[in-house]
Structures are given as structure tokens and as C-alpha cells.
Amino acid sequence: MSKTVEFFFDLGSPATYLAYTQLPKICAQTDSQLIYTPMLLGGVFKATGNASPATIPAKGRYMFQDLDRYAKRYGVPLKFTADFPINTLMLMRAVMGMQLRHPERFLTFIDCLFHALWVEGRNLNDPATVAAVLTQNGFDPNEVLALTTDEEVKATLKDNTEKAVQRGVFGAPSMFVGDQMFFGQDRLDFILEALS
User: Where are the beta strands (DSSP E) in 11-152?
Assistant: First the structure.
């Protein structure tokens, strides 16, 4: 049986962005498959009673410093939008829609959104900014918007979120190797061990 990492993610999490920059390398190194599973972090928080660390002043300050340390360690840029945290409902429906309807363009799609949000620090809460980012990356904003109202897309995202909670997920990123759950981008060394 081939080794897999299930990656439960939401674009709006900076720790998820950092994990996203490293997981493909870990999977390549261990000859493992990376399975991207979009979920809605707001839905996870609501179901579990959890909240963003950014909402707790002391924890938030520490988190920003720690994420910056990890970005430097990984050699990747990390820039926060002034509008952080953002509501990712429409973005994650678009991500889910792209995975369901246009899987061949899925990775390019999430690449452009992660880059706009966490490398360029663009405000993806703003529909005009999202449309500009999509256009610049060869996507039709109207086609993407249509995906966000697709009933199957909405139901699948909701289902992914509910399944994540049932498996013990309380935040993002959450990764599974078999039945083992790993929470946070600072647990990637344990994922590497589990795959090796």
C-alpha cells in the first residue's frame, strides 16, 4: 500500500501556507502521495469551540513571531495582509469547486491563491482583488464565482469539514498519516518520521 499524507487545509491559515510549502518536498523525499482536502476552518472552529490564536493578544503576538521564524527556516516569504484574519468561505468553495470540476488545474489554482495571500499579502476578502488575482493567473473570475454557488461543491466542502471534525481535527493545518493526526506546520518532522 502506498504511503499518503492527507492534508486538511484552509487558505486563510498562515501555518497552513507554511505546511503547504514543505509537504510536497516531504512527500517526494519519502515517495508518498499528498492528498489535498479542502475544509472550512471557521466551521471547524465553530464545531470544536476553538478560535484563531490571533484573537488572544499574547498568543497572537507570539504566533506571528513563531511563524516568521519558521518562514525563515524554510526559506519562504511570509507576508500578512492588514485584513488578517479573513473570511475564507467563498475562497474555499472556489478551491473545492476547482478540485471537483477542474482537477487538472487545482494545484495551479491553490498556488496562485496561496501566493497572493501569503507572499504578496493581498486582501482576498475583497472580491475585486480576488478577480484580479484570478485573471492574472489565467482563470476566469466568473467561472470561478459560479463554482462557489454549485450545490455539490458547497455540500462537499461541508462534508469534508464535518469529516475532519469527526476525525479529531480542531484547527489547520491538520495532516493524517494513516490514523495518526499531526496538527500544525511545526509537526512536519513527525510526518517525515511516520513516512520514513
Answer: 33-38
